[in-house]
Amino acid sequence: MSDAENVKALNGLLNGIAQRVYYGKSEISEELLKNEIYPDMSQEEFHALHDKMRGLLKSMAVADMDQTQLDAFLTAQTRKHGGVSAEQAAALARFWKAHRTRVRDSLLSQSRWEPALRALDWRVDVQTASSRGRASSTPVALVELELGRNGQDSEFLCLEFDELRVNQVLKKLAEIQKNIDSIVHHS
pLDDT at position 152, please? Predict the structure, then answer.
């Protein structure tokens, strides 16, 4: 293959990997990419190239690399034994410049729970007099949650908490935060 053909083939491979991994096109398989883009390459060579490019794209995507980070990363990859050639690094840089935002958006949407919390509003009301004329100063927290699935209208959930319930919710949130912290610090 000429240099231009190599660059074109590598761009096709990177696009195919992105289509499958980040854009949900499950019909694009490693075998399809090999047969369409690299029909003359052995299965072992193609598998190694595919895995290397997929791994590099994953590293770039997970770090959401900006141009400075990308340049440093690709420079290191070109100097590394078994890394990438200068032409491959250039192709990766062009690909990432064109696809970074879309890959990032795809990763964000894949990691989002549904239904998602779209908004939260709250206030504390203090009732100053009861209907029977007795003075009361019991605070009540009112919380309105806006929940929704992607592409659908929101649903609203209104909750009312007295002081005891607010304290119970805060305690549970502190427990959740503690559990999250323990998982993050052990990873």
Answer: 85
φ, ψ of residue 126 to 5 degrees: the values are -120, 120
* Sequence-ordered list of residues with C-beta below 8 angstroms from that of 3, at least 6 positions apart, any chain: 87
Read off the pTM. 0.64
Residue 121 is predicted with a pLDDT of 96
The C-alpha R_g of the chain, in whole angstroms, comes to: 26
**What are the boundaries of each domain within the chain?**
3-111, 116-186
In whole angstroms, give the CA distance from residue 71 to residue 132. 73
Task: Identify residue 133 by its one-letter amino acid code.
Answer: G
Q: Do residues 66 and 74 make contact, with C-beta atoms less than 8 angstroms apart?
A: no
pLDDT along the chain (187 residues), means of 10: 82 95 93 94 94 96 95 95 92 96 90 85 82 71 91 91 93 94 82
- DSSP summary character for residue 174: H
Closest alpha carbon to 23 in 123, 105, 113 = 105
| Distances in whole angstroms, Cα of residue 165 to Cα of each of 141, 147, 160, 168 | 9, 21, 9, 5
Q: Cβ of 49: how many Cβ atoms within 10 Å?
A: 19
